[in-house]
TrEMBL record:
<dbReference type="Pfam" id="PF00579">
    <property type="entry name" value="tRNA-synt_1b"/>
</dbReference>
<keyword id="KW-0030">Aminoacyl-tRNA synthetase</keyword>
<dbReference type="InterPro" id="IPR014729">
    <property type="entry name" value="Rossmann-like_a/b/a_fold"/>
</dbReference>
<keyword id="KW-0067">ATP-binding</keyword>
<dbReference type="InterPro" id="IPR024109">
    <property type="entry name" value="Trp-tRNA-ligase_bac-type"/>
</dbReference>
<feature type="binding site">
    <location>
        <position position="133"/>
    </location>
    <ligand>
        <name>L-tryptophan</name>
    </ligand>
</feature>
<keyword id="KW-0648">Protein biosynthesis</keyword>
<keyword id="KW-0963">Cytoplasm</keyword>
<dbReference type="InterPro" id="IPR001412">
    <property type="entry name" value="aa-tRNA-synth_I_CS"/>
</dbReference>
<comment type="function">
    <text>Catalyzes the attachment of tryptophan to tRNA(Trp).</text>
</comment>
<feature type="binding site">
    <location>
        <begin position="145"/>
        <end position="147"/>
    </location>
    <ligand>
        <name>ATP</name>
    </ligand>
</feature>
<dbReference type="InterPro" id="IPR002305">
    <property type="entry name" value="aa-tRNA-synth_Ic"/>
</dbReference>
<dbReference type="GO" id="GO:0004830">
    <property type="term" value="F:tryptophan-tRNA ligase activity"/>
</dbReference>
<protein>
    <recommendedName>
        <fullName>Tryptophan--tRNA ligase</fullName>
        <ecNumber>6.1.1.2</ecNumber>
    </recommendedName>
</protein>
<keyword id="KW-0547">Nucleotide-binding</keyword>
<comment type="subunit">
    <text>Homodimer.</text>
</comment>
<dbReference type="GO" id="GO:0005524">
    <property type="term" value="F:ATP binding"/>
</dbReference>
Length: 326
């Protein structure tokens, strides 16, 4: 089986954007690929965080993966910081990564504008660590949301630079795999749904919270009163309908919006029931899994053991290729 790699940061509760853009795809891809899934904790040091929360967040993210259907029997699930070869390879890749390429990264521009007091080297070099994460396992595929595509393109560029500089072909150029819901907007209807922006519907949210958030979600701004006709094409809630609802419901909501026979609240209520159908079983299963943190730690230890073997082999090969092995 071909190998793939992906990960998420332990920066807070995963949301339906993470799930639909990435995690659901990971679960499905376990059938066909050798999967390596990581909790990329070192990436999450690039923005401010509470040290005391980190352990809990790592365990929480592992429980979320498991509750979503990541199967530790079929894939390798591990914590990035436990495998030190990630950061070693990052340094080696840093030495073939042009700064001009890093300067183009939109995520860096975006995150540095939101963290003005803490624009650090790690935030800038984030895509190089991400490239190391991927190619340490010689992964050929990377299932991610659309926001990460630029970083995967850069990974390919770094692979080309490395292979050319050292006259080798040890690393394949990885390809992204996008889901059909590659960019979910937040309840603000403007920004990408994000853990760090307070605009998400979380996989941990209870029914009441989901309802409250959904009722706040922005719709067509031109539709002020129920009697105003709307345009589903500019309504973020309608874009969610296209993911969650049945064909009939989608066409009824579209028609009802255009001729103002259905109000936004009614439209959201239909969506609410479908969102609950997705979130409730994940939330309940996660709560169950979290009761046994020893099990979660065992899963991560086992995953790390398997990753460690691959990582050490790759780094040995890399040391040979770059000429530092005596
Ligand atoms: N809104 C989204 N729509 C589709 N896919 C998304 N992803 C994130 N947001 C959306 C995908 O989820 C995976 C894990 O993301 P991450 O934890 O590495 O961090 P991120 O991309 O920075 O996600 P967030 O939620 O926006 O986190 P914060 O707020 O901490 O930065 C990735 O594959 C991502 O593409």
């Amino acid at each position: 089986m071909k190998r793939l790699f992906s990960g998420a940061q332990p920066t807070g509760t995963l949301h339906i954007g993470n799930y639909l853009g990435a995690i659901k795809n990971w679960v499905d891809l376990q059938e066909k690929y050798e999967c390596v899934f990581s909790i990329v904790d070192y990436h999450s040091l690039t923005i401010n965080y509470e040290k005391e929360d980190m352990k809990k967040r790592i365990i929480d993210l592992a429980a979320t993966y498991l509750a979503c259907g990541i199967d530790p029997e079929r894939c390798k699930l591990f914590v990035q910081s436990w495998i030190k070869e990630h950061t070693e390879l990052m340094w080696i890749l840093s030495c073939v990564t042009p700064m001009g390429e890093l300067n183009r990264m939109t995520q860096f521009k975006d995150k540095s504008s939101k963290n003005v007091g803490n624009v650090n080297l790690g935030l800038y070099a984030y895509p190089v660590l991400q490239a190391a994460d991927i190619i340490l396992y010689k992964s050929e595929f990377v299932p991610v949301g659309e926001d990460q595509v630029q970083h995967i393109e850069l990974t390919r560029e770094i692979v080309r630079k490395f292979n050319a500089r050292y006259n080798t072909d040890i690393f394949p150029e990885p390809q992204e795999i996008l889901s059909s819901s590659k960019r979910i907007l937040g309840i603000d209807g403007e920004n990408k749904m994000s853990k760090s922006l307070n605009n998400h519907i979380g996989l941990d949210d209870d029914d009441k919270t989901i309802q409250q958030k959904l009722m706040q979600a922005k719709t067509d701004p031109a539709r002020v009163r129920k009697t105003d006709p709307g345009n589903p094409a500019v309504c973020n809630v309608f874009s969610w309908h296209k993911i969650f609802s049945t064909e009939n419901e989608i066409s009824e909501c579209a028609k009802g919006c255009v001729d103002a026979s259905i109000g936004c609240v009614q439209c959201k209520k239909i969506l609410l029931s479908h969102m609950k159908e997705l979130i409730t079983p994940i939330r309940e299963k996660k709560a169950q899994i979290l009761k046994d943190t020893d099990y979660i730690k065992d899963v991560l230890v086992e995953g790390a053991k398997k990753c460690d073997i691959i990582a050490k082999n790759t780094i040995n090969e890399v040391r040979e290729v770059i000429g530092v092995k005596i």
